[in-house]
Amino acid sequence: MARIFTTGAEESDPSALWDVIFSDPGTGQSGQFHAFGKTDIINFLPRTGRGMYVLYPNQYLEKNFGIVTTYTELFWGFNIHPSELPSSNQAIFYSYNDDPDVYASECHVTITPAGAIAAYRVSTLLASSANGVIAAGNDYYIEVWHKPLDAAGRFTIKVDGVLVVDFTGDTTQEETFISAYRWIGMGSSTSQGMGLDDIVVNDASGSFNNSYPGMVRLLPIRSQSAGTYQQWARAGVNLGFDAAQARNGTFEFTMMQTADIDKKETFVPELPDLPAGASITNIIISLRARVQAGAGVIAPMVISGATEDISADQTLISNWQYYQYAWPEDPADSNPWVEADLANLQIGYSS
Description:
By secondary structure, this protein is mostly beta strands. It contains one helix and 27 strands. The protein has two domains: about 5-205, Sandwich (Jelly Rolls), CATH 2.60.120; about 225-350. The strands form six sheets. Strands 1, 3, 4, 6, 11, 12, 13 and 15 form an eight-stranded antiparallel beta sheet that branches. A seven-stranded antiparallel beta sheet has the order 2-5-14-7-8-9-10, with no helix packed on it. The longest helix is centred in the last third of the chain and has 5 residues, at about 245.
């Protein structure tokens, strides 16, 4: 499995998902805009679901690998909605390849006033698309591939599935691994900023999710009833299994806890309304969790028909953090998911 990060901006606690949030991005809830009741602030909607990020040029969202040096190439997919084109070249995405917490060596994606999208290594232009690829007021799905090497490195950009920038050569000034990546906003103080949605990151390893992610749409599903297992205790806020569905909002209305290992909690989700001709590439579970004292683990799980599949344990920390896992295949038959499989799906987690 090579999907290392996924977000559709549906989470109610961005600080538990991102390693760095600079300048409280956006005009919604901590940089997160939800479509319902906010159209007087932002006049465009999320591409999918109920949430998106809205960023301005002095605001960014970052994931940082710290001392981990194993990611030698990554593929990103993300949707942007620029409310206006910049008055001068504006970087919107950075892939850093430097020592931990050092940000000198990078390649980045820039949008120009003429609507071109370009690749830079620090201040050196690597390659650019034609003008007019990006226009204000539209959604564009961007895919980026960065392989930092001195001579045979790669940096490419796709816009709505079309390869518009393709560079081979020197794509690093320091390390040959990716140390962090960052999205930064675009617009002016009088504009509506840049919408950011449907973000995924693939590593190049593994048998699945190891290349360009494609034209991803993340469709959030909410729990609508209890599943097979109810082994965790309900504590604090408890609005029931269908709370998010009833409230038509974010997902974290019920607090669950357990002091024991190998306890399971599963839910029957609502069935999403898939677009015509769509295919299901992954079922993804994203859990917000922490350990209150001592040590603990969490493992996202699914039940498909009579088949249970529990992912590997992930170590909890004392702060709230999101823990994710992606299933590219139905564990019941080891085939790609089809819409009919969702009628027999349960989602949940194990301690």
